[in-house]
Each structure stands twice: as C-alpha cells, then as structure tokens.
Amino acid sequence: MGEQKRKENKQSTFIFGTQNYKWMFIGLGFIALGFILMAGGGSDDPNIFNPEIYSIRRIRVAPTLILIGFGVQIFAILKNFKK
What we know:
By secondary structure, this protein is mostly helical. Helices cover 63% and strands 0% of the residues.
C-alpha cells in the first residue's frame, strides 16, 4: 500500500523548460556553424602550401562563433525561466 502511494505522488517533470531547450538549440547552431566555417582550406598536394588556412574566417570568425555558442549553452543551462 505504501508503494502505491509513492507512485501516485511521483510526478514526471523535466529539468529544463521549453525556453531552455530553445536556447540550447540556438547555442548548438552557433557551435555547428563555427565548425563548418573552420573546415576546409587544405591542399590536395602536401608539397604545396595553401595560404587559405590562415584566412580571417578560420582564425577569427569561426572560433568566436564557437565560443559564443558555448556561452549560450551555459546561459541555457543556468537560467531558470520557470519563475
């Protein structure tokens, strides 16, 4: 009988709300975009140097987007939207 009462009182609740998940997906999008921008730039022939690997997009923009994405992820986890 005691076990049945515990099962009735137990409610399934999510840890995060819909706002938290929305912000998590936004952060994930920033991280994915940063890694996509960082990809490529290599050379087919290892004896030929390709200066494209040092472009502003790969050195500045992509890592900045990744760090912004991680910051958004931390915000989404720590923010309590249920209030």
